[in-house]
Sequence to fold (182 residues):
Amino acid sequence: MLQVFSIFLLLFFTSPLNAEIKNKIIQNLKKTNNLDFKFEQNINGKIENGNCTIKYPKKIFCEYVKSNNKILVSNGKSLVIKTRASYYRYPLEKTPLNLILDKNFLINKIYKLEERIVDQNLVNFTIKERDDEINLFFDNKTYDLIGWQNIDIYQNFNITFISSIRKNRFISEDLFKIPSLN
Fold:
């Protein structure tokens, strides 16, 4: 009987703490208009890194280092991946980034989702939408988004870690202009 009571107390006192963490993550997202950061991306074992800027809603600009001048840019409607040798353009709505870059969508989903604490350092939410499954990871102390994992449009397993996060800086809209084919 004492064990049952102890488990009940543990569950009772764990839930409000988790609810508090979830609320702090949501409040932090609400206050974030944009962010820039360093990233490391692992796509099926191939590691790339660089710098990104996100401006909500749905805009991103990433420059990859040591990667043929590779950039990834979204103006909120289209997503372009461009290198010296290639140019790919997709409707943003067909990619998982469409969801990741939509702050209001994330907030609404997080309200409804159960969070998981991972190694006492990370908070994980799993979003299942259409054919996409996205795992979002937040820092348990700063409540900042620190990465995600998903399957990309080519069916590759993609893990993205972000660091050196700076928020709510002045960002020119010109950064998110879709580059030309040349």
The helical segments are 2-31, 97-100, 103-112. The radius of gyration is 18 Å. Residues 1-16 have pLDDT under 50 and may be disordered.
